Amino acid sequence: MKNATTKVTPQGDSEVLIERTFNASRVLVFDAMTKPELLRRWYGPDGWEMIVCDIDLQVGGKWRFVTKRPDGKEIGQLGVYREIERPARLVNTEAWEDWDAGETLVSATFEEADGKTNFKTIILFPSREVRDAVLKSGLDHGVDASYNKLERMLTEMTVQNKT
User: Fold this and answer.
1) 44 phi-psi bin (left φ>0, alpha ψ -120 to 50, beta other)
2) Tally of CB atoms within 10 A around 128
3) pLDDT tens-digit map of 102-117
4) In a designed cystine with 14, which of 5, 27, 56, 125 is the match (CB 3.0 to 4.6 A)?
5) Domain-embedded: residue 118
6) Which pLDDT tens digit goes with each residue over 52-93?
7) How far apart, in whole angstroms, are the C-alpha atoms of residue 153 and residue 13?
8) What's the CATH number where 122 sits?
9) 1 inside domain
């Protein structure tokens, strides 16, 4: 499952590796993924709207997102931050409000080289069945669409910071 810009790869029995390089500093990418005012601008594919973005960015702090699809369906996600090493690493749990599939563990790293950020996320699902259901639902397309929006936002922010 390789897209033009985002790579989504199943690993082992119950993991998915997501990789993307962003043309921005890792501080900016980290902030875009942890600050509500920035997350609201890019999270979700085109036509989706983030209607709730609550973040308590500290170890043990909780987060909750609710997105609204174009058809009106709302999707809630929530979790707890386990590790925060700004701007290098972020680890949190994730669960869904309308699907009792169990909790995932999401580990993200931000590595900067030549002004670009190599972003990697490993999602550990509670089972192969849950992982495969998420992959079948279009994880690769949704992540790629969201990260394309993120890339556009990062480019705008970088240009604004240079002027």
Assistant:
1) left
2) 13
3) 999 999 999 999 999 9
4) 125
5) yes
6) 999 999 999 999 999 999 999 999 999 999 999 999 999 999
7) 35
8) 3.30.530.20
9) no
Tokens of 152: 């556009």
Residue 149 and residue 21: Cα distance in Å, rounded?
A: 13
Half-sphere exposure of 85 (CA within 13 A, CB side): 9
SS (HEC) of 111-140 = EEECCEEEEEEEEECCCHHHHHHHHHCCHH
Length, in residues, of the chain: 163
With respect to residue 23, please indicate whether it lies within any of the assigned structural domains.
yes
pTM of the predicted protein model: 0.92
62's tokens: 């909780």
Residue 2 lies in a domain: no
Beta bridge mates, 50: 67
Write out the DSSP string of the chain. Answer: -B-SS-EEEEETTTEEEEEEEESS-HHHHHHHHH-HHHHHHHSSSTT-EEEEEEE--STT-EEEEEEE-TTS-EEEEEEEEEEEETTTEEEEEEEESS-----EEEEEEEEEETTEEEEEEEEE-SSHHHHHHHHHTTHHHHHHHHHHHHHHHHHHHHHHHH-
